[in-house]
Write a structure and sequence with these properties.
With 379 residues, the chain is an alpha+beta fold. The protein contains eight helices and eleven strands. Helix 1 packs antiparallel against helix 2. The N and C termini lie far apart (44 Å). It comes from Pyrodinium bahamense.
């Protein structure tokens, strides 16, 4: 497998330079082979504790009301800085004596989106993912202890789901998936989604972490990618009718849609862009404060004025009353002149009786990335 990966990575070098249809086809075949390979998965994610497909008898008739914290953060190719107080993000909206029952944390760009990583990191970067998990658990301890239910990675995308210690015996029907969107051509996997679903005490949940195409001019590509993600995640067939093969930890059976879950959550870097150019802004971007620019810019973001992508038509979002989450100069509260500020990082949800308790960005976590992390607390 190592020799195969090295060969595929060499092919990527030529693809990235725009050479030959044959090289692009070979790269696609290499990615398909890796996607079917068991060796790119993390064996520790598939312990016997998660093998049950039905609830315990005591849980089946009495679903419990659980609190769920969803978080999303584009990390710009690195782990969170040691200067960050992660508890601000992980416990957002909770009282001083409270913590979420379920944590679903989605990262984008945990590694740089270098073309070679489309093969060498096809299943994620295990070392960085483990380090991130350790930092999360450390930030919550010793008061709160959690057990990881499942995680899944794809190049820079990573989704990790945890439950409070004591809930793990009640977890069942665990599944995961990844969707490599076709909008990135031969570098499929650079954008797309990773997803996890599971049930706890009679309630089922689905979490999808997305990273959509970037660029002012790529609105149609973002819509196409989101449509593919929502149509293929956890399903046995792709949108063209082709089979999506099963593999270790990925059932890919068309037996349940997102709408069938007690709660479904789509979070991540949607790369929504404002319909305005830097020259139309009332001041140079770098001179705008996050608070001052928000009222001016909101009118230019279709996603904030009711024009929700059709793929999210049945999902809700909390009020976006926080400043733009992108693009900042790292370590500061100043916007980068290279981009028009935008609300790229979002969380959407649906579910019978699912209530949003808190939704916000975290400006204090400024030392790691040009994005601000976002969290949503639900019950």
């Amino acid at each position: 497998m190592e020799g195969f990966i090295r060969g595929a990575a060499t092919l990527i070098g030529s693809v990235a330079k725009g050479t030959g249809k044959a090289a692009r086809g070979a790269l696609g075949a290499a990615q398909d082979a890796l996607d079917a390979a068991q060796s790119v998965e993390r064996p520790a994610d598939f312990g016997p504790a998660w093998g049950r497909s039905a609830p315990l008898a005591a849980d089946a008739d009495a679903p419990e009301s659980l609190s769920i914290l969803c978080g999303t953060w584009n990390l710009m190719g690195q782990l969170p800085s040691s200067h960050e107080a992660l508890s601000e993000w992980l416990l957002a909206g909770c009282g001083p004596s409270e913590a979420p029952d379920v944590l679903a944390l989605g990262l984008q760009e945990l590694v740089r989106l270098h073309p070679a990583h489309c093969v060498t990191k096809a299943g994620g970067d295990f070392e960085r993912e483990d380090e991130f998990d350790a930092r999360v658990l450390q930030a919550l301890s010793p008061r709160w202890k959690y057990v990881k239910v499942r995680s899944v990675g794809m190049i820079g995308l990573y989704l990790a789901c945890f439950v409070k210690e004591g809930l793990e015996p009640h977890v069942y029907d665990v599944d995961a998936d990844r969707v490599r969107t076709s909008t990135e051509g031969p570098l499929a996997g650079k954008k797309g989604a990773v997803a996890v679903s599971f049930a706890v005490r009679g309630s089922s949940f689905c979490f999808v972490n997305v990273h959509l195409p970037s660029g002012q001019e790529r609105a149609e590509d973002r819509s196409a990618a989101l449509r593919q993600i929502m149509g293929e995640a956890f399903q046995g067939l792709n949108l063209l009718g082709g089979e999506r093969p099963r593999k270790l930890g990925f059932r890919r059976e068309t037996r349940q849609t997102m709408a069938d879950h007690s709660g479904a959550f789509v979070l991540g870097d949607f790369n929504f862009r404002l319909e305005i150019s830097p020259s139309e802004l009332p001041a140079k971007v770098g001179a705008l404060s996050p608070q001052d620019c928000s009222p001016v810019l909101r009118a230019f973001d279709p996603s904030l004025t009711g024009e929700v992508d059709p793929a999210l038509a049945h999902f809700a979002e909390g009020e976006v009353d926080f400043p733009p989450t992108y693009k900042y100069k790292v370590g500061t509260d100043s916007f980068d002149d290279a981009r028009v500020p935008a609300w790229t990082d979002r969380i959407f949800y649906r579910g019978r009786g699912t209530a949003l308790l808190h939704y916000g960005a975290h400006p204090g976590l400024r030392h790691s990335s040009d994005h601000r992390p976002v969290s949503g607390l639900f019950r």
